[in-house]
Specification:
230 residues; mainly alpha
Length: 230
């Protein structure tokens, strides 16, 4: 899949960057270009199954809404795939081409926000407990998309190229773990029982699927990747 291809390139880049030294890549020996690109890959890997988890919840609570939710989810998933494709193109393109591709990525990522709003409207269930679950998932996804948009904006101000970000290398500070933290939080939430047995069964299944998503982290000053369990 496209997301896997992009993440493979990031891993290769990390191995190349590690020989260049801390001062060349990091601000205060913290975040590298590979770190930032890995986090973008994390966002894309995470939000696709996260948002897909809304459908089984709605199917239990209000099956009549399922077709509309299915359609809205399909639009969102297509947007995630398009974003991954543009990232793949950006990472493989020349410095001259990268700013233009970044603009296309900006448009696709912005559309993801609208897609999430449409999905939330489609999943407007009457049950307050289920409504809370849907809203929690959409809110988490919206925050992840906002992080993606923030990165794109910062990269744009640096010139929109990998070389520019390599030179700046300061778009995040401290430990780069927002997606790992978001995943841990939503999984913990979904594992807490609501008292509704059918709903809790589905929520637990969604939590387990999210736990299986590979989220990667780099240690400050070390391009060492490892899986983070939920």
């Amino acid at each position: 899949m496209k997301r896997r291809t992009f993440l493979g390139r990031v891993a290769s880049a990390a191995l190349a960057f590690v020989t260049l030294g801390c001062s060349a890549l990091l601000t205060g020996c913290t975040i590298t270009l590979a770190d930032v690109l890995t986090e973008i890959g994390n966002v894309l890997q995470f939000i696709a199954p996260l948002v897909s988890g809304i459908l089984p919840i709605v199917e239990v609570a209000d099956p009549v809404l399922a077709p509309a939710v299915t359609a809205a989810n399909a639009v969102f998933q297509a947007g995630v795939a398009a974003a991954s494709d543009f990232l793949d193109q950006w990472s493989a393109s020349s410095a001259a081409a990268q700013p233009g591709i970044l603009g296309q990525l900006q448009a696709v990522a912005s559309a993801l926000q609208s897609d999430l709003s449409n999905l939330l409207a489609a999943a407007h269930v009457s049950d307050s407990t289920v409504s809370t679950e849907v809203t929690t998932i959409v809110t988490t996804a919206t925050q992840e998309v906002a992080a993606l948009l923030a990165f794109i904006a910062q990269l744009g101000t640096s010139g929109g190229t990998a070389a520019a970000l390599h030179a700046a290398a300061k778009h995040y500070s401290g430990s780069l773990t927002p997606t790992a933290d978001a995943r841990a939080s939503i999984v913990a939430h979904l594992r807490k029982p609501t008292g509704d047995a059918p709903l809790d069964t589905v929520r637990k299944h969604v939590a387990e699927k999210l736990s299986d998503v590979t989220i990667k982290r780099t240690r400050a000053g070390k391009d060492t990747f490892f899986d983070i369990p939920a």
